[in-house]
Amino acid sequence: MIVPSDLNEGHLQLENLETLCHNFHVSMKLSIYKDIAAKLRVLLTGSSGDQGFVTKFLPTLELLPLRITVDPAMPQDLLVFPGDGRITPSNVIRMGAGSKYGGAILVQPGPTVTRLRLTGIFLSTGSKLPLASWLEQPFLFRDLTIRKFIQNVANKDGGAHKSAHPVIDRLDKAGRVHWHAIGAIAQEVLPQLKEQFHTAYPTYDPESALQ
For position 167, what pLDDT does the model report? Predict the structure, then answer.
């Protein structure tokens, strides 16, 4: 049974994620990528053994799978670009989905990072995966899943963690692509979350819920 307070909180969490996506993708406040990761952790992955909060109001949530399948036999330090990337505004440098890079890639830390755009990391149509299966898809590296990626960026990147975490260190050396990968996950998952929320609760009125 869905608890009304969980439904209201879920709606608020989706609104907050939408604001973060706007600030990241439209206002170009790229430094909030950790805030986006923290919000995705709360909603989707949970922490300390708990499930993501989304299971409280969308218990049957299903999401579209990744476009690119990471080959489990490829070298551990090889990064598979998860979507279509380009460097703006010139668009001269393009990185197609599935491109593989070893060591440092073209997008180095610094001004170039702010001009990277990453889109199309998930299929736009087709069969969807239950949340638990969706989170276990290999992502970027063969030994990294979507779940671990979100949790590592939310928990291990900076802050109290003064020594570099191995996963974050690998992502930094890959041009800090995790900034934009987190932003792309949020941007592409949010419409699916909102659609399934409105399908499950077609008469939900946030104004009435607050009274």
Answer: 85
